[in-house]
Automatic annotation (TrEMBL):
Signal peptide, first to last residue: none
Residue spans crossing the bilayer: 12-35, 55-77, 84-100, 106-125, 132-153, 159-178
Database matches in Pfam families: Rhomboid (PF01694)
Key words, A-Z: Membrane, Transmembrane, Transmembrane helix
Single GO term (MF): serine-type endopeptidase activity
Gene Ontology cellular-component terms listed: membrane
InterPro entries: Peptidase_S54_rhomboid_dom, Rhomboid-like_sf, Rhomboid_protease_S54
PANTHER family per UniProt: RHOMBOID PROTEASE, SLR1461 PROTEIN
Name of the protein described by the UniProt record: Peptidase S54 rhomboid domain-containing protein
Length: 220
């Protein structure tokens, strides 16, 4: 299961490194494949920008969190993971294109923020002990990411807080949207008994309502 959960994150990360080596090997700058807000030539960046990085330091800083969070997403939410990742990927790029500064926005950090926020909020919403523990681990390892989503917190660094904020928002949206899908909190026996009693009452009410309707129809 761990190998299966690692497949897509590893492939995506390998593509990022291959592209970076191609840039350095051929002396080309692929920043033009990033998101350029409100410019038509920046639209492809909605899909391509996470693959483009400013250098080895930039990609190196993103690699471990991308891999760790990606594997966690596909391991614990295997039925939802791909849909969640695609939504975060696209929505982050779209939000940056509409609301970002007039510059080229590149890097996978927005996706990282999206996965982190999804894992955290989804774990809290579901009230599942294992997923709640995962949420705490995410906070412990990557809780400091929140500062990167605050405008102007790192004024001297070329950080796209718009990507970070877009990813954070996208992850929250997915956590709430899929709150009733995927792994859920295990229910105790007394909770199941109460649900069975409620269903029995609903069936009884449905019966009496239906017979009343029939009686009214007959009288008419």
């Amino acid at each position: 299961r761990l190998i299966g959960a690692s497949t897509i994150p590893v492939i995506l990360l390998l593509l990022m490194w291959i592209i970076l080596f191609v840039e350095y090997g051929f002396g080309v700058d692929l920043a033009f494949l990033g998101v350029h807000p409100l410019h038509v030539n920046g639209l492809p960046g909605i899909i391509l920008s996470p693959f483009i990085h400013a250098g080895f330091k930039h990609l190196g800083a993103n690699s471990i969190p991308f891999l760790v969070l990606g594997v966690a997403l596909f391991y614990f939410y295997r039925d939802l993971a791909l849909k969640v990742l695609v939504f975060i990927w696209l929505m982050t790029g779209i939000l940056v294109w509409f609301g970002g500064r007039d510059a080229w926005h590149i890097g996978a950090s927005g996706i990282i923020y999206g996965m982190a926020s999804f894992l955290f909020f989804s774990g809290l919403i579901r009230k599942n002990n294992g997923l709640a523990a995962l949420a705490l681990v995410v906070v412990f390892l990557y809780g400091g990411l929140i500062w990167g989503a605050i405008p102007g917190f790192f004024p001297k660094e070329h950080i796209s807080w718009e990507s970070h904020l877009g990813g954070l928002f996208s992850g929250i949206v997915m956590a709430f949207y899929y709150r009733k899908s995927g792994p859920q909190r295990k229910k105790y026996s007394w909770e199941l008994e109460e649900e069975a009693e409620d269903e029995g009452e609903d069936d009884e009410n449905t019966y009496w309502n239906s017979t009343t309707s029939m009686w009214i129809d007959r009288e008419d």
